[in-house]
Amino acid sequence: VTGVDGDSAGAGAGGESGGGGDHAGLSDLLVAPTAVVTVGAPTLDEALAAQGVPTVPVDWRPPPAGSADAVAAVTAVPGLDRANRTAVERMAAVRPRLVDVRPAAEAVGIGRHQLLHAGPPIAWEAASGPLRGAIVGACLYEGWADTPAAAEALAAAGAIELSPCHDHGSVGPMAGIVSPSMPMWIVEDGDGRTSRCTLNEGLGKVLRYGAYGDAVTERLSWMQRVLGPALASALRRHGPVDVGSLIASMVAMGDEGHNRNRAGTSLLVRALAPDLVRTIDDGAHAAADVADVLAFVDSNDHFLLNVVMAAGKLVADAGAGVAGSTVVVAMARNGTDFGIRVAGTGDRWFTAPATVPDGLYLGGFGPDDANPDIGDSTITETVGLGGFAMAGAPAIVQLVGGEVGDAVAATELMYQVTVAEHPRWTLPVLGFRGVPFAIDVLRVVRTGVTPIVNTGMAGRVAGTGQVGAGLVRPPLACFTAALDALAAPALAGSAAAAPAGGGAGP
Amino acid sequence: VTETVRVERGRYHDSVTLMRASAAGAAEPGVDTVIAAMATELNLTLLADAGFPAPDATPDDLVVAVRADVDAQVEAAVAAVEQALVRRAPAATGGARAPSPHTVEAAAAQAPDAGVVLVSVPGRHAYVEAAAALRAGRHVMVFSDGVPVADEVALKREAAGLGRLVMGPDCGTAVLGGVGLGFANVVAPGPVGVVAASGTGAQQLCCLLDGAGVGVRHVLGVGGRDLSAAVGGASALAALAVLDGDPAIEVIVVVSKPPAPEVAEAVAAAAAACRTPVVMAPVGPGHPTLTDVAGTVANVLGVPFAVPPPSADPSWWPSPAAPPLSPPSSLTHAPPPSLTPTVPSPPSPLSPPLSQTHAPPPPGPRSGPLLGLFSGGTDCIEALAVVEPRLGPVASNVHHDPSRRVGPHDHPADVHVLLDLGDDELTAGRPHPMIDPAAVAERLAAAATATGEGGGGGAGEPDRAGGPGVVLLDVVLGHGAHPDPASVLVPALAAARAAGLATVVSLVGTAGDPQGVDRQASALAAAGAQVYRSNAHAAARAAELALAATVGSTP
Q: A331's torsion region: left (phi>0), alpha (psi -120 to 50) or beta?
């Protein structure tokens, strides 16, 4: 695998003691240094500068209060680099292929009164406006309730079973509501693993932004009756679409795969259009329906987002469960909390209250109208896309009033908190360097530099829909909590050892 | 309230630009709502929701809708929207604004040729940064002190596995091919390599050698605890091996405080196996002074040795050189593979006393004990070893004998005291005295105003009541040190002279140092100090003066 940084093959703490024997490798020390990396007191830089030796000072700050011990303990865990390399290799090896579109009832196995949602687990009582709106909308769409009030009553009574998409090999944008009748993209890795995501509804008053009502239901029904089956037919005729290559192409064409999917959407349609048209001759679909499908995709620059998300889920899940690894394998928000999962800590979510993105607003909306961050679409950043690939999608930085250089700087900054670079998703503007890949909880806490996320903003009030788009940084507390958990075994061990090994010194 | 809805046919801007433009318009005073958008179905709905009348427009047309208090404000908002739409960002600068590195790894990636990482973050954070440096394939110098010993052991074990060297923690000085890191004196490259478990000890040795015309090529600091039982000399052994492999090195010196016996044995065994002669130089009671060690090194190299004069200007300095403290004859045999300078039996033959012929008597000599104020920890320990055989028990915050140890703030009356002012307890929250000698100057000034003649016996008297008769200081020059320490010390020295105190300075520096050893020596001497380039000689001289001062005060 390419791109794993550091020269520390086989490093890890606690290697062979060396016994003082082989010091041949040290001789490179005995030359006047041409440059020195410095971290700490600026006085020492000045002394080097006075001798004409350039320094590369680290913009160092202490880890957050209360995290210093965890940072040191995790740094010292034997095999840390090896574990992270394993997680990265597994993630980078995934070749996601888009194979089918099937209803959630079939693909996920959910039934009556069962819904999936974005982010970490949450109950109706704690749900934010857009999540509640989407739940109401889904109940209306599925015919579980006739009116919004009836739907709310159903949910409030606990009759609707809510479960995170992430626990069902799935992801969903914004509210991320998945109901049994919704068609879902099916992505496979060829090794028997599958991931899923709903189809993108387009912009405006849509369920994922918490809107509900006749227009929303109508569109969802059309997607169920026409869009899903047509895409399924086309895909089955066409055969699997290599989503990994598609992502590589779109990243090279100015998409970052989260807030900008324009090129990728076009590429997918270009690939599927012939088979889509042939389904007319097959008698499977009416020409008018196929035309509607193509027109719908043309009207929605985010159409591919949900495919990228499903691929991201497949990639990230490959890293899950690697013991000792500090690589983030999920970032997701439910509109109330931001949560992350880490390779070395199993299914546990580390959550903190979600914040409101910083960005631009549609129409007459403003910051007061925006809901806190919501959606599983941060799976794109989890695998090096979205905010991490911003250097390749400079149009996006305008969302926060930035300039092109800021897009490059954002990606450059993310290299500092990731373990590797993706071997195939490369950025032409950075000399075809791979996107920053595999977020490292340890590096995030050490530096206080949190991931950069591009995102849409939902209205705070149920039923509003989208109010804007912008950038958001996850709360650092998710990462410090995860690091504490990663450090817990080591810290418990040293605490147990202290009474024996410690004691009064001179 | 007034509003406008304007349509521009066929004008296209992307939605992000339009949202920016809307925000710019809405920022104008008095403006309630601004919507600049392509007239898509969705945006027309938004427009209607915001209460604007439906314009006659197609999705290819631009709509700008504004609501504000008065017409002028509407126009201002429209102008602001237009300005935002036509604004062009400066040309893309590519990666020109790369963010500064936040981690050692990122900095190392930016500087692939930087073979060494210099870590000086607070001690409890040093392990993480040093480990990152090692894992990025770099050698690391850990200047930080207060690093837990377990961290040091872990770092050195990992470094051994990676074939890298950890210099430190608490490594004050290193010289690599003539480039100094941390506190380092400017010395000419030469045939000497130093393994330094004592930073200021290494600096004293380098300066004495430099003054005798003997160059030093490398100083590999290993940290003051490296030769402890816990660390086991991990870095010293590695440093010894790598210096032994450098054909330009003709003599290796291992400078340290007295090591743990088992570690001393291991280092001695490694030294014996070296092709290059190795001089062991533990500094402390019963061991040769660094001045003696410098003489030994010169002898091994076949170079005549003399302690350099404190200044090239002889007008105030009465003697061209001081004699070595131990007879060089015992050291002039052919260099064996490993050398240990002969230990002089205390009191060492410092004769004739340096003061007899040349030192001007201090004006109005005051009786009282010796007070030593050191910024270099090893200077203090060496001075203790020199002074105690001459004066008897001396109290110190770094005394090896716990019964003679005092706190760094203590000034027990009528007792000789030598203090290491670089003590962690004193440097927490203020600069090390080598960086800023203000702390030394304060203590010196306080000593000048304290009562002389042993007033400390009375009940309830503060400890410092019995002021000293003689004050001994070290002044360390070089990179990293204060740019002009004499300027800080001179007022206090002058006050001390006026109060009848004798002052003796051990000046650790070279002609090449940024501060200029001559300039510093002249300024210090002009303020009444007796200045020595040898710390051992300075200590011996101070002891001699103290002996006279205390004897003189005894009826």
A: beta
